[in-house]
């Protein structure tokens, strides 16, 4: 640096050092040529500094002139140089730099804190906006429900007036519409259900939000909701189910999107005749509430809530005791009720189809129950299904790939079909056309049969094993089946080249499919879930969003059974339990655990290998037949 050169000039006459190239490169003012360099160095001998140095580096220039003072005595001594402000200035600058750096760091820290607080504020504001939207939604729904209640009260008062004024209707009980504070307003098929009046306030309190104070709780504990401990235990799940139902798009009025697949009767109207296998309660009345379209969420949620509260447990009505209980191969693979719910048949790996009279087993306590009919097969049985029209006709499938149609009254095979190449997992009769039968096999094919012919009348070929088949209710023109590729396929049989739609959502093999009604389908999988699908909401050939996903049971490797009735869905579990769901809610409504008992001693034993292997509702009743892997069969009833 130029200052260093000046110091050198003060103490040395070695001008070659002053003019060395390595030193010149460190000058404040770089040289453009050697001549320029020589002129500058020559001027420096006479204390003439470059103009750039004087302009930009005044302190440095002043210091150099001091060092180059013409009088040697006036030049600074070493002590003076060390104590000069100029040489001490870098230390001060360093301190200022450190102070400035610390200040900048503190400012950056404050900015970081400010950004963090702003982010929290934004998120809380978003949560507050969402909460405000939720409150607005609740207020709107409360207003809607209140309007419905007022409408029904007025309608009830009108019925009372008509009943009092007309002696022909005087014997008809008046419609009793109670206030919302009345526990019976929750409604159910049991109008006054004792299970709702469980005064267990302590348990209810544990499930409330922590922010709710005790005063509010005391004021609201008389609500019918607080009289159902089961409801309060699942309050958060019910709340989630409400919002899920509320946000779900309401199906527009009119025909469903695949109405073209439904049977048409002579006058051109779609047939909606309910059979024993149908879960359709009744046709909607013509008189609807004026704002029915806007309040379409009320009916499905209210139905689910009422049915959730209708029953409190599964009670054993009968325990079917068989003579061959000691047989090691008693796993029941399938249970099916006949057309009238009078008889049920069981079939499994013992190669036998047994037919029992349900009421006889319920009403008569016996040490051993014998079947009214027993039919022996050549192979292990995988599935059975009664004909919904011909009472004495039963279809079965076995592990050798054979499909058989039986005449139960004569205990013999009517028709035998042998076109499948591998095990047949499932058979199903069409309710709309009782002469049509479908079967699904490990050979990746679904075959359609006519009971009047011994050969198939149609076939759908896929790449994966077919585990279950099901005709829609009141339609023979389409079919649904589940596959080992984790998917459900829905086909229009009039164009079976490609599926009408594919349902994607399970993570493992789809073991069962059942139609809840004409548009809703429930599926079971070994991924521990059941899923509910609405076929009418599909706008493309792929549906990847189920309406509901039911969890609570355990099903990771076995076929545990699936049955539907009146919106209730029954399934088994690998915990040796029966679970009952309602289509409106994702959590179980009821459950019942089979006791593991030693058939010889009658003592309970711990056998984790036992699981529920089959379930079947008795028509549209609250009675359910369930069997487990050891052949233990129980008739259960929701009470």
Automatic annotation (TrEMBL):
Location in or out of the cell: Nucleus
A molecular function (GO) term: transferase activity
Listed GO biological process terms: photomorphogenesis; red, far-red light phototransduction
Gene3D superfamilies for this protein: Transferase(Phosphotransferase) domain 1, YVTN repeat-like/Quinoprotein amine dehydrogenase
UniProt superkingdom: Eukaryota
KW Cell inner membrane (keyword) present: no
Protein name per UniProt: Uncharacterized protein
Organism: Populus trichocarpa (Western balsam poplar)
């Amino acid at each position: 640096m130029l200052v260093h050169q000046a110091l050198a000039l003060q103490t040395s006459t070695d001008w070659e050092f002053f003019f060395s190239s390595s030193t010149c490169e460190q000058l404040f003012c770089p040289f453009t040529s050697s001549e320029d360099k020589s002129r500058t160095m020559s001027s420096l001998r006479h204390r003439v500094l470059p103009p750039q140095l004087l302009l930009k580096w005044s302190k440095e220039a002043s210091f150099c002139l001091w060092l180059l003072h013409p009088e040697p005595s006036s030049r600074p001594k070493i002590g003076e140089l060390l104590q000069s402000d100029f040489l001490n200035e870098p230390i001060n600058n360093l301190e200022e730099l450190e102070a400035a750096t610390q200040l900048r760091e503190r400012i950056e820290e404050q900015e970081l804190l400010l950004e963090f607080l702003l982010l929290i504020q934004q998120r809380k504001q978003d949560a507050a906006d969402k909460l405000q939207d939720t409150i607005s939604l609740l207020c709107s729904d409360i207003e809607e429900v209140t309007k419905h209640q007022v409408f029904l009260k007025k309608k009830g008062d009108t019925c009372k007036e008509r009943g009092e004024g007309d002696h022909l209707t005087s014997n008809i009980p008046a419609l009793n519409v109670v206030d919302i504070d009345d526990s019976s307003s929750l409604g159910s098929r049991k109008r006054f259900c004792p299970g709702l009046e469980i005064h267990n306030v302590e348990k209810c309190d544990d499930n409330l939000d922590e922010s709710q104070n005790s005063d509010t709780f005391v004021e609201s504990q008389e609500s019918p909701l607080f009289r159902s401990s089961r409801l309060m235990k699942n309050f958060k799940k019910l709340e989630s189910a409400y919002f899920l139902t509320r946000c779900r798009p309401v199906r527009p009025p009119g025909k469903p999107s695949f109405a073209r697949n439904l049977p048409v009767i002579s006058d051109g109207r779609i047939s909606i005749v309910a059979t024993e296998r149908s879960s359709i309660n009744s046709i909607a009345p013509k008189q609807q509430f004026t704002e029915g379209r806007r309040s379409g969420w009320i009916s499905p949620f209210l139905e689910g809530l009422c049915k959730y509260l209708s029953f409190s447990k599964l009670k054993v009505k009968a325990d079917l005791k068989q003579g061959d209980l000691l047989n090691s191969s008693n796993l029941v693979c399938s249970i099916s009720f006949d057309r009238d719910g009078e008889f049920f048949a069981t079939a499994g790996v013992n190669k036998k189809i047994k037919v029992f009279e349900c009421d006889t087993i319920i009403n008569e306590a016996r040490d051993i129950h014998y079947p009214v009919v027993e039919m022996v097969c050549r192979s292990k049985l995988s599935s059975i299904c009664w004909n919904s029209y011909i009472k004495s006709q039963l279809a079965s499938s076995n592990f050798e790939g054979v499909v058989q149609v039986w005449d139960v009254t004569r205990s013999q095979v009517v028709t035998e079909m042998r076109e499948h190449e591998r095990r047949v997992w499932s058979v199903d009769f069409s309710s709309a056309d009782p002469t049509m039968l479908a079967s699904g096999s490990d050979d990746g094919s679904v075959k359609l049969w006519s009971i009047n012919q011994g050969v198939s009348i149609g076939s759908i070929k896929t790449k994966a094993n077919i585990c279950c088949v099901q005709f829609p209710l009141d339609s023979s023109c389409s079919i649904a089946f589940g596959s080992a590729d984790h998917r459900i396929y829905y086909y229009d049989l009039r164009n079976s080249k490609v599926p009408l739609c594919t349902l994607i959502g399970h993570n493992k093999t789809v073991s069962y499919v059942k139609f809840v009604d004409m548009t809703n389908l429930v599926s079971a999988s070994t991924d521990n879930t059941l899923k509910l699908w609405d076929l009418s909401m599909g706008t493309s050939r792929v549906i990847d969003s189920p309406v509901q996903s039911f969890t609570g049971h355990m099903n990771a490797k076995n076929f545990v059974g699936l049955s539907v009735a009146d919106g209730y869905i029954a399934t088994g579990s690998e915990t040796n339990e029966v679970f009952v769901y309602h289509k409106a809610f994702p959590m179980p409504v009821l459950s019942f655990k089979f006791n593991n008992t030693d058939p010889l001693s009658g003592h309970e034993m711990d056998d984790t290998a036992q699981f529920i292997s089959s379930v079947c509702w008795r028509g549209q009743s609250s009675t359910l037949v369930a069997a487990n892997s050891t052949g233990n069969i129980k008739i259960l009833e929701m009470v």
